[in-house]
Amino acid sequence: MSKTSRSVPPRAPTLEDVARAAGLSSMTVSRALNTPQLVRPKTVEKVIAAVKATGYIPNALAGGLASRRSKLIAVVVPQINNNMFVDTIQAISDELAVRGYHMLLCVAGYTQQTEADLVAALLSRRPDGIVLTGIHHSTDLKKVLLNANVPVVEIWDLTPTPLDMLVGFSHEKVGQATAEYLLRKGYRRPGLLWTVDKRAAQRKAGLREVLERNGISEPGSVDVALPARFTSGRQGLAQLLEQGDFDVIVCSSDTLAQGAIIEAQSRGLQVPRDLAVIGFGDLDFAAGNQPAITTVSVDRQIIGQRAATMLADRIEGSEVDAPIVDIGFHFVERESA
């Protein structure tokens, strides 16, 4: 086939094409798309009809240059296959949509360098704000965000010195509350089934602190690779039971707790008579499990709603009264412990 006979890819519709289809000037079309509140409703309807007819895709970045807004919020989470974050992500998306923003979801894993590289790439897209998971970030990331001067909300953790704004809770206090529960219930031989991320490590440190103060200095422990999975709970309990005899297994997530319960039952152990099990997160299956899982409940939706609201308020020039929000947590006693 000769060069002249090759088909030419269709040209993407332009703003001028929309203007011709609507019978309006390009300036009027631009105003109708970028500031519809300043244009007559009938004119806006005509422009929208022309956009649909031509297949024109507005350049959100170019259109936002005058207002310096992209209407994009970047949300960075370590995983999307972790049920712990799903409700928070959905709440952020829903709340942002109400405020006229779009969520750009990104997965950074659990390494600080990957998170820093990802955020640097995101900033080239000029997001109006960023949501980061946790408070442990690299120095490079902190410098990049400082130079970018973009509003940031950190979620799922707590510190008196956030990068900008924060919505979360104290993982250390969760661990302490869990240990205090064990002591009240009379458990003295705990085993720990734990993932290796920093927030889980904070919970473990708080739990160990209280246990050691009360004479339990060496609880058995098995570390589990991320992400936490049902099978990891089963395998982890099997490894723990090789270490010794326990009266309670404390897990860093409900997913691990569910796996541990099934493994215990497969070995003829009754939960909680022979072995109690405690989780974390109060995931949707925890209450319906057999037995129902004793756990720590955190309002994952509120974290997302508050984070999105704080960002949108800051972007739109409203004052954020409380840049640090501690949503707290509560212990849920059920059948497994």
UniProtKB/TrEMBL annotation:
Assigned keywords, A-Z? DNA-binding, Transcription, Transcription regulation
**Which GO molecular function terms does the record list?**
DNA-binding transcription factor activity; transcription cis-regulatory region binding
Highest taxon, organism lineage: Bacteria
Q: Which PROSITE patterns match?
A: HTH_LACI_2
Residue stretches in coiled coil: none
For the HTH lacI-type domain, which residue ranges apply? 13-67
The name of this protein is: Transcriptional regulator, LacI family
Species of provenance: Kosakonia radicincitans
